[in-house]
Design goal:
Layout: H1 3-19, H2 39-52, H3 61-91, H4 101-141, H5 162-206
Helix pairs in contact: 1-4, 2-5, 3-4, 4-5
Length: 212
Amino acid sequence: MQFHSIKRLIKPLIKSGHEWQYISLNGDSKGKPKLYFSGTQIIIIAICIFSIFWLKKGLDNSLMGYIISGFAISVSLFMSLLVNIFDKFEKTTFTTNGKDADEIVRLDQKRNFFKKFISITSYLVLMSILIIVLCSFSYIYDTSRLIISLNNFCYKPAEIDYELTVKCIFVFFYRVALNYFLLDYLLLTLFIAGSSYEYYMSELNRTKITRS
């Protein structure tokens, strides 16, 4: 398997997972940010930056182990869920013969729900793998040994330790990225759970009770 083959598969997955966060079940785009990040994600990034100076050693290695285990389990669970949801999709009949306008709209919403659920869930699987890789760096390089504090800043060029500066910059961006993906993963999981609940309840409310 070549790298460009993986890139060819991953790129549309990321694009689709990002786009379907802002597409309704009717197929309308709503609230899509002008920039790549939404307002909520920008707030998350700001929280992650400020948290670096609160968690000066970053996340503890023992906690990293629990995170890796948890996300490894989530990958297998989400993959099983994707197989099941696609199986449901294949068993769904999308023919419009003999259906009125409302039923056709429901079919279109159902198809969009499958596309949205599969796109975002696949995106979550990819994020889980990325988080596992990022957490693994903490074990390999033991990043918790490096303390990032405002006291580390030096304003005199002659006193700057350039090797330490490079290490601090690398660890700073590493911790920001890890914290961001953890919070964004939580946000997306809540989003897909809320979207699924909304769709399921709308379908249940449309179901008519027939009395014999």
